[in-house]
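I hope you will forgive my troubling you with a question about protein structure. The record follows directly beneath this note:
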Amino acid sequence: MTTSGLPTYAAIKRQLMALANRLAPGCEPDLLKLIGKLVDAWQAEHSYLPLDGQALKAFATPAASLLIGAPEDLTPLVLQDDRLYFRRLFELETRVAKALYQRHEAIVGVNPEAANASEPTLPDHRSLSPSQYRAVALALSRGLAIITGGPGTGKTTVIKSIVTRATAMNPGIRIAVTAPTGKATARLESQFQSEDKPLQLMTLHRLLGFRRNGKPHYHSKHPLNLDLVIVDETSMVDLALADALLAALPPNCRLVLVGDPAQLPSVNLGRLLADITLVDEPVLEGAHCQLTENFRFAEDTSIETLAQNLEAFDPESSAKTGIVGVAPDALSDAQLAEVMSPYLKALETSSDPAVLLHNFESARILTPQYHGDFGVYNLNRRIEALLGRAGTRVNEPFYHGRPILIVDNHYQLGLFNGDIGLCLDPSQVSKPNEQNIQTVDKKTSFKVYFPGTEDQPPRSLPVAALPKHETCFAMTVHKAQGSEFDHVCFVLPEAADTTIQNLQSQALVYTAVTRARKHLTLVTTQNVWRTACNRSQSRRSSLPQQLLKLEGRS
């Protein structure tokens, strides 16, 4: 809410208090304080403010009754079970709960055992593991399936098998496989390149047809023409996006939610996947399958073991295969160059954008923050300085080899938040047959190359036409969700203030560590590591309570 052109939370707080005084003249100070606390809770991405007996006393006044009411009232604020909500957020949460509950049923006439028997092995002839088998059977036999698993448990394999087997059962089935970000979608596209299936594969925003005004083309009155929707990386889906998706699904469309609930929650309000899987009292029983076997990590690496027991690890003294610890003050330019060496070496030897894009995606530097010595901006400057010493003119806004991270959606260009491209000098590029997204501006020589889809060559775009973007040798852990790299350098410095300290949570550490496939460099100290691993990033949500009410258990 601090984006340019939008009011700050402080301004919203002032406006709400002024509105409260207009609606209920003589509003008690205690009530105004509660409204202020509710705004603070919203800013922290909580859906409600918990109230104790003392706070509830502020509602026993005529003025309060004009502002606060029950769920069925028309007041701007809602009180339910000692929880105070903005009505918009209350209705958002209850709509999502109702939509999930309505899809939570078995599909009559489907035999999941027969469905699995129709294709006993995957295209690479590797049989499904027991938990993968159960997950596929669940997805084929229910209106709602929730499939969770940590890194390397074969979630993408399960998605491919669901598509294959659903198509075998019904050759005319209309399927969409989707994810919240362009990067996560690109990873899925690489897995389905050789598939000849009736499949739509795109970001959630593209699937729903979001327009410039922020409204989707598809909604409850104009639903998607689909029979099965599979959402990967569901941990990144916020409540508003989940609401838009659920509203756009036709009644008989099956929905499969896939992801890792231990990862960071969505940037915006909501923690959908965790709310329906990591709860004390289970909800949507029968719809959830957890994948347990691991296939990603090599047998001689310890990244999986580390991810399963973060608190016990000592980055300063523990010797683990595939994991190297470095003290922040000892992090040298040579070590940063070693992390990025596949790409830096490719820049010296290759002129093929596809090769350069592939090499860049093999490694990444991750950090929780933008500012400070160990933030995104300074780490990027250190890599640029290495390029500068090698002769690249990095003092210019654009230079050969600059990696570009798109941070805004541009529907006309087909570029979305999370897409990554490379700024290259066309005179140093050997592939003249790339797809041009837009005509080159004669005044600027540089173009940005983005990965092509399926067997298509990279797409190119003149730098003048780029949407909002940033350099991404280093990037935040949040921005790296949905990506995987052979080598991850995770920089976790001592927090300079409480804001950064609050970012450094177990979920952030887990998300960063599990981006690595083979090698992990940890730049931190034991004290910082342990503090972060023991800090939970809790977000108040009553989605589980709303589901329990619908199920008659609350």
